[in-house]
Amino acid sequence: MQLGYEDAVAVVTGGSSGIGLATVRVLLRAGARVALCARNAGRLDDVANILRRDHGDDKVMAKPFSVLDEGAVATFAADVQDRWGQCDLLVNNAGQGRQSTFATTSNDDWRAEYELKLFSQIYPIRAFEPMLRSAKGAIVAVNSLLAYQPEPHMVCTSSARAGVQNMLKSLSVELAPDVRVNSVLMGLIESGQWTRRFAARQDQSVSRADWYGALAQRKGIPLGRLGDPVEAANAIAFLGSRAASYITGAQLDVSGGLNRHI
Ligand code: NDP
Questions:
Q1: Are the beta carbons of 100 and 109 closer than 8 angstroms?
Q2: 70 partner at 20 to 30 Å CA-CA among 94, 203, 252, 259?
Q3: How far apart are the first and last CA of the chain?
Q4: Does the Cβ of 219 fall within 6 Å of ligand 1?
């Protein structure tokens, strides 16, 4: 199977950690040039230096900003245009989940969560759309299984994610035939947010393996474990590639079987 990333330019938001970083690495190994962003400049710099060492200076572009800063996103797109003159793939990955029930979600929390989930897609898509159209490129949105299977302790996040899925479906029609728009629905992937929850576990004597094992069992994941970020990245890289050239408006769940829908 030919992914066709040689000579391609990819943009990955939230590329300094977890699923985003794994995606950056998979794309670089497949031959793409990759531009990544994240808010924490120090961590992004450290990551970018390692990526440049491993793949070459000319293959990596990194800039610190929030994807919720529309002007910064637009400037980033202009930087990519100036440096590489094209964008073949946009991976909208930046973000995090919010744990709260309806009772514990304030109005401001609702607004902030909807802003994060929707505008972390909208601003980059607006900014990169012209380049994506001329490249006949692709957008892959990183979303969550919660969009279809809400959890009571993640009411706000689940509902915002359902809205994102709906918007992506519309975009897959509006941007066709120039740009393919697909999404990946993550189950539980062992990355930044779970590392933080593990670090904050109530009983600090519980080992990493036991904590993750119990989590997988409690959630009823048929494959019996959390996913590795590389497993998520492989799905993203496939959907964004020429190998998926007849797929648009689709969602691929990477959840170890946690998705109960037919
Ligand atoms: P990580 O915390 O490991 O990585 C998140 C990345 O996004 C970091 O690089 C972070 O860097 C960046 N980021 C966060 N907010 C912003 C922002 N506003 N602007 C720019 N960059 C930002 O998390 P994961 O890899 O686990 O998550 C990646 C995506 O997958 C997220 O959207 C998450 O919600 C989603 N997801 C993950 C699941 C999982 O089980 N891991 C399950 C379902 C969905 P910095 O903090 O420096 O900005």
A1: yes
A2: 252
A3: 27
A4: no
- Report whether pLDDT(32) > 90: yes
Give the Å distances, CA to CA, from 63 to 48, 75, 86, 104, 204. 9, 10, 17, 35, 36
Pairing of strands 180-186, 251-254: parallel
| Peptide bond before residue 229 is cis, with ω within 30 degrees of 0 | no
User: Is 121 in contact with 163 (CB distance < 8 Å)?
Assistant: no
- Helix then strand then coil, in percent of the chain rounded to 5, is 50, 15, 35
Question: Is the domain of 82 the same as that of 210?
Answer: no
Domain total of the chain: 2
In angstroms, the CA 37 to CA 242 distance is 24
What is the best residue among 19, 91, 154 to mutate for testing ligand 1's pocket, by most ligand atoms within 8 Å of CB? 19
Amino acid at 8: A
Is the distance from the beta carbon of residue 97 to the nearest atom of ligand 1 less than 6 Å?
A: yes
Residues forming beta bridges with residue 143, ordered by sequence position: 185
C-alpha–C-alpha distance, residues 128 and 176, integer Å: 15
Residues 221, 96 within the same domain: no
Within-domain flag for 21: yes
Residue at 253 is within a domain: no
Phi and psi at 181, nearest 5°, equal -130, 115
Number of residues in the chain: 262
Q: Tell me, yes or no, whether 197 lies in a domain.
A: yes
On whether the pTM is more than 0.85, the answer is yes
Judge if 47 and 81 occupy the same domain. Answer: yes
Which of 146, 191, 219 has most ligand 1 atoms within 8 Å of CB, for mutation?
A: 191
Q: Which residues pair with 64 in a beta bridge?
A: 38
